[in-house]
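Q: What does the assembled structure look like for these inputs?
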Amino acid sequence: MRQSIRANRGDRLYDAVNYTILTLLLLAVAYPLYFVIIASFSDPKLVASGKVLFWPRSLDIKGYIEVLNYAPIWTGYRNTLIYTTLFTALSVMTSLLAGYALSRKPFPGKTLVTAFLLFTMFFNGGLIPTYLLMKEIGLYGNPLVIVLLGAVNVTNIIISRTFIKSTIPDELFEAASMDGCSHFSFFFRIALPVSKALIAVLVLFAAVSQWNSWFNAMIYLRDQQLMPLQMVLRDLIVSQSAMSMASDSADMGGDAAAQIYLVEAMRYAVIIVSTLPIMCVYPFVQKYFVKGVMIGSVKG
Amino acid sequence: MKLAGTAREREALKPLRLRMWDNRQLYLFLLPAIALVIAFNYLPMYGIMIAFKDFKPHLGIIDSPWVGLKHFDRFFSMPMFEVVLKNTLLISFYVLIAGFPLPVLLALALNSTTNQRMKKLVQTVTYAPHFISIVVVVGMVNIFFSPSMGIVRNLLDMLGVHEGNLGVLMNASSFPHLYVWSGVWQGLGWSSIIYLGALSAVDQSMHEAAIIDGASKFQRVMRIDLPSILPTIVILLILESGTIMNVGFEKAFLMQNSFNISTSEIINTYVYKIGIKEGQYSLSAAIGLFNSGINFIMILVVNQISKRLGQESLW
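A:
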C-alpha cells in the first residue's frame, strides 16, 4: 500500500523493465519446451518446413504411435522404473541414517567418519580404476552396478545432517532417552516424521538423477534388455542425428522422405514421453527447493 | 549451560570402550554409507596405482610391473595433450563467465517483483530444464539446429538472415557456444535459487528505511539487494573456479561428432576413448589422475582463498 502511494515515475519504469526482463527470460526458457510439445502433435512435414511456430498444425500423433509401438522404449521404461525405485530407496535411506548419526552430539570417531566421507567429494579413483574394479568384483554387466554406484551421495548426507541438527536438538533425544527411547525408535518415531521436507527433496534429487542417467549403463551394461530409458533415448535422438544429418542434406525421394519425417516426429514424441513423469512430479516438491539448496550450500 | 558442561565432562571421563558402546546404534546407522563409500569410492583409489604401472589384465593390478612416470611423460608429449587441455580450460572459463550473470539478474528481478503469480510462474518454468536429462537437452540442440529442417534454420530463413542449410552442428568453432548456452538455458533457474535464498535473508528494515528516505526501487536493488548477495556471488565464483578442469563428460561426449572433435575433445572424453574403447588402461588412468590431481589442488587453493576472505570454508 505504501508502495502504491510512493510509486513515482522511476518506480513505474523500474517495474516495466523488471517485467520485461522476467518475460524475456521466461519466454527464452519456455519456448524450446513449448516448441517440442507443439511439434510433437503436428504434421512433421509442416514442422520441418518451419510452418509450426506458435501452435500445433494439422494434428498428427503418428510420432507417438510409433514411439509407443517401439518395444525398446517399454523395456527401457521398465528398467528405469526398477533402477530408480531401488536406487532412490537405497540412497535416501543411507543418507538419512548417516545424516542422523552425524547430527547427534560428538561420539568417538565422529570427526574421522565425517572427514572420511567428505574426502570422496574432492577426490575419486576416476573412470578407469573404477571400471577395472567393477570387472574384478563381477559387477560388470550386472544391473546391480546401476543401483549401487553413486547411491551414497555425500552432499545428501551433509544436507540431512544439517537439516536434522537444526530441527531436532540433542536435548530432545536426551529427554526421550531418559524415558528409555533408543536411537532406533527415536529415528523412526520422531526424526523421520518431522523431516518430510528433507525426505521430499532427497527423494526428488535421487530419483531425478537416476531417471536421467545413462553413463554407467553405457560403461557397465552390455545386455540390451537391461538398458535404461536414457540409453534408448540416446540411440533415438542423439546417435541418429549424425545419420540423418547426412541424409537430410541429400535429395529426398518419396519413401525416404516419409521415413525421415517419421523419425523426426518420433524424436519430438519420445522427448515428451520420457520427460513427462518428472515434469508432473517436480512442481509439487518445488516449495522445498530453496530450503534444500540453501542447506546443501552451507557447511552447517 | 553449567549442567551441560558437567555432563559433557562426565561423558569425557568414561573409558573409550564404554563411550563407543553407548553409541553403538549410531555406528550401525553409519554402516551402510561407510560400506558403500569404501566399496565404490575408496577401493577404486587403490586401482590408481596402475597409472604408474604397465597394467596387463592377465597379471592383475598388483603383479603388473612398475614403470614410474612413463605414462605421464607420454601424455605430456602427445600432440593431443595440448588440444584436450586447451579445450577443457576454454569450455570451463566460458561456462564460468557466461553462467553467472543471468541467474543473478533473474534472482534480483524475481525478488523485486510484487506480482506473486508472475513470480511463481517464472520460477516453475525456469526450474524445469534442470530436471530434463542431458540426453534430451543434447537431442533438442541437434533437432533445433538440424541443417535443413531445424527450427533455427527455418527462423533465420524467415527473417531473411540466412539461406540454405545451417552448418552450426558441423562447425567445430560453434561447439563451445552450443555447449555453454544450452547449459545456461538448462541451469539458469536452478542457479538462481541460491541467490533467491540469500535475498530472502536481507533485512526488510533496510528497505523500509530506504523507502522513507525516498530511495527508488532501482536504487534499493542496486544499493541493498545486490551488495547483500555479493558475498554469495563471490564465493560461488571462487568455488566454481575450483572445478575448472572438471568439464562434465556426459554432455561433451553426447555432443561430439566427427566435425567438431577438434574443439569438443576434452580430458574426460579422451580418457574414456583411449581407456575403455582402446583398452590403454594405464595411460588413461594416468591422464585421469592428472585431471583429478589438478582438481584436488584447485579446490584446496580455492578453499584457502575463501577462508582468507573471511567466508565460509568447505571444511
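The two ends of chain B are 27 Å apart (CA to CA).
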